[in-house]
Automatic annotation (TrEMBL):
Positions of the DUF434 domain: 25-79
Name of the protein described by the UniProt record: DUF434 domain-containing protein
Residue span(s) of domain DUF5616: 84-221
Upper classification of the organism: Bacteria, Pseudomonadati, Bacteroidota, Flavobacteriia, Flavobacteriales
InterPro entries the record matches: DUF434, DUF5616
Native species: Chryseobacterium cheonjiense
Pfam families for this protein: DUF434 (PF04256), DUF5616 (PF18481)
């Protein structure tokens, strides 16, 4: 029996759970946006903001994920697809990025809505992937989206070097076969580059992929808006 969750770290409530902390993080994201928009590198920008507001490592990780330059925001917005654009299309999914984010959200972890409107978490693969209690529910949400939006085929792309990537591919393939879903799984050595080169719409919240892909869809936004998910979301904006 699997008893693992992908929820909060023990320190997360103290780092993200108060209005004071969230207010400081929002100011730090605005500062990062200012620096990024003027050509400062992401690492230097996050270090400057982190030092100024005395942020902890996980807080810096959060503001890095939430920040973007003005050019990045405009570029990503110009390529964003709507739900009605997906009907009859083949879609490519950034497997670990989407699956782990869904698992984290369903586990009650803090989720961060960035300046680009994308949602990100603080979990990671760290060289190996293990299924958790929320994995099946995450796939059920993906299946509901797939059927409701009339997607013809969904291609899940996973990192070949990550341990257990083959097992999650097999698990997803069996899930899809049982439900007669036209899903495909694939292992790639460089999934980011592979997804960025697709002509089809991709689903990811990875910043590099969003900057370099042709078209993308905000699946997490769609699920939050349409599935009444009880997510713990911290929103960032320039207002």
């Amino acid at each position: 029996m699997n008893h693992r969750n992908r929820g909060k770290n023990t320190s997360d409530d103290s780092l993200f759970g108060s209005e004071k902390q969230v207010g400081t993080l929002r100011t730090a994201v605005q500062d990062m946006h200012y620096l990024l928009s003027r050509g400062y590198p992401e690492k230097a920008s996050s270090e400057l903001a982190g030092n100024r507001y005395r942020l902890k490592t996980r807080q810096i990780q959060a503001i890095r994920g939430a920040s973007a330059s003005q050019d990045q925001m405009l570029n990503r917005k110009s390529k964003e697809s709507k739900a009605e654009d997906l009907k009859g299309k083949t879609i490519y999914m950034d497997g670990f990025n989407v699956l782990i984010l869904l698992e984290s959200m369903l586990s009650g972890a803090y989720i961060f809505e960035g300046l680009d409107g994308c949602f990100r978490d603080l979990s990671g693969v760290h060289g190996t992937y293990k299924r958790v209690n929320q994995t099946l529910h995450s796939l059920e949400l993906a299946a509901s989206f797939f059927q409701h939006c009339g997607v013809v085929k969904l291609c899940w792309i996973f990192d070949r070097p990550v341990s257990n990537s083959g097992r999650i591919c097999q698990f997803i393939a069996e899930f899809a076969q049982e439900r007669k879903l036209d899903w495909e799984t694939s292992l790639e050595f460089n999934p980011d580059q592979f997804l960025a080169e697709r002509e089809e719409i991709v689903i990811s919240s990875d910043a590099w992929i969003l900057d370099h892909c042709k078209k993308w869809f905000n699946l997490i936004r769609y699920l939050i808006d349409n599935k009444n998910l009880n997510a713990t979301i911290i929103q960032f904006s320039l207002a």
